[in-house]
């Protein structure tokens, strides 16, 4: 079977109906699927409305850790789409939840090489995050035979997208 006939078979009315009848939840990536930059992709609101009218659960996933679920909900809102934070599963949220389910001690700190999204999600589950953009302008210490002094209460490091990554952060 050639690619064109396979594609038409996959997108037939019957196959779409079967999909809608067989699945209760639909997961959507965000960047490049729902929007490109700050522009909503055509047909997205209508698709979500149709799925919700059929009682389907929608989950929005992203591996972009620069934003928290709150910030993503605000972006959806700015594009005219109503989404709750509970419908969003971001990598920043996943990192915070991982520490929580692993019972990472609340008295330990988390060093973040990444953006505000990670720091906000860590704070929401009760962790103290350090680093992030705040350390983007700091410089590494390059003294001979010098041990780097670090915060001994840091018990974990979370790394995400960080346009301000530098040698200081790597040294920490």
Structure, explained:
One of its GO terms (molecular function) is phosphatase activity. This is Phosphoglycolate phosphatase. InterPro entries: HAD-SF_hydro_IIA. Pfam families: Hydrolase_6. The chain contains seven helices and eight strands. By secondary structure, it is of the alpha/beta class. Helices cover 37% and strands 19% of the residues. Helix 5 packs parallel to helix 6 (116-124). The chain has a three-stranded parallel β-sheet. It has helices at residues 3-10, 13-22, 44-53, 69-78, 91-101, 116-124, 167-171; strands at 25-29, 35-36, 39-40, 57-62, 88-90, 109-113, 128-131, 154-159. The relative contact order is 0.12.
Task: Summarize the entry for a quick read.
With 172 residues, the chain is α/β, with parallel strands linked by helices. It is 37% helix and 19% strand. Helix 5 (91-101) packs parallel to helix 6.
């Amino acid at each position: 079977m050639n690619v064109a006939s396979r594609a038409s078979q996959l997108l037939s009315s019957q196959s779409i109906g079967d999909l809608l009848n067989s699945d209760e939840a639909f997961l959507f990536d965000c960047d490049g699927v729902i929007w490109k930059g700050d522009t909503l992709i055509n047909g997205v609101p209508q698709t979500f409305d149709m799925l919700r009218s059929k009682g389907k659960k929608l989950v929005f996933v992203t591996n972009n850790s620069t934003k928290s679920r709150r910030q993503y909900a605000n972006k959806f809102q700015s594009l005219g789409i109503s989404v709750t934070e509970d419908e969003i599963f971001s990598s920043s949220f996943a990192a915070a939840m991982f520490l929580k389910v692993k019972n990472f001690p609340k008295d330990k700190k988390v060093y973040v090489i990444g953006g505000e999204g990670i720091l906000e999600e860590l704070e929401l589950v009760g962790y103290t995050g350090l680093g992030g953009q705040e350390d983007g302008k700091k410089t590494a210490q390059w003294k001979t035979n010098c041990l780097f002094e670090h915060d001994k209460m840091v018990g974990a490091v979370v790394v995400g997208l960080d346009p301000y990554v530098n040698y200081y952060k790597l040294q920490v």
